[in-house]
Amino acid sequence: MSTTPSSVTETAAGIAVASGTLSRLLGHAAGQGRSVTAWRVLSGLDRDGAQRVGDLALQQRVAQPTMTGLVIRLEQDGLVARRPDPHDGRASLVELTGQGRNEVEAYRLRAYTALAGGIQTLPEADQQILGTAAPLLQKLCDELAVQLDG
């Protein structure tokens, strides 16, 4: 089966709109007042470990002053802490606190529960399609990240 450029573009548009909507809905269902960006930063720190503010800004595609402000708020809430960078005495690393890790786990559980509730309302055949599509979407995300960061 051959795909034409217009059908690929239509598929891309559908995925982009649906993923944006899904992200907003899950953020609303699970976010408890924090921004989607805050949750992405906390999740990234949980997944990848301590990082510099500049690296967090690059990953989230926001300006460094914006990320600095977010880190300050997360630090005030006890979710992250800063420590000196052992490789550069002028810099610091941002890392999750125990409370931050607990909040990320609770956020994920709320989001997964909300999404699972929606999936369960779909016919079995659609649930199976989504089960197959999820790893493909992650592969697509990984490829796109390489293109954007490369």
Instruction: Quote the distance from N terminus to C terminus.
Output: 31 Å
If helices are DSSP runs of H or I spanning 4 or more residues, what is the number of helices?
A: 6
How big is the Rg? 18 Å
Q: How big a fraction of the residues is strand?
A: 5-15%
Count every beta strand, where a strand is a DSSP E run of 2 or more residues: 2
Overall mean pLDDT = 92
Order of strands, widest sheet = 1-2
**Can you summarize the main beta sheet?**
2 strands, antiparallel
> Secondary-structure element order, as H and E?
HHHHEEHH
Task: Explain the overall architecture.
- The structure is a single chain.
- The protein has helices at 5-30, 36-48, 53-60, 64-76, 98-120, 124-149; strands at residues 80-85, 88-96.
- It is mostly helical and 150 residues long.
- The longest helix is centred in the N-terminal third of the chain and has 26 residues, at 5-30.
- It is globular, with a radius of gyration of 18 Å.
- The two termini are 31 Å apart.
- The mean pLDDT is 92.
Question: How are the elements arranged and paired?
Answer:
Blueprint: H1 5-30, H2 36-48, H3 53-60, H4 64-76, E1 80-85, E2 88-96, H5 98-120, H6 124-149
Antiparallel strand pairs: 1-2
Helix pairs in contact: 1-5, 2-5, 3-4
Keywords:
150 residues; mainly alpha; two-stranded antiparallel sheet; 6 helices; 10% strand
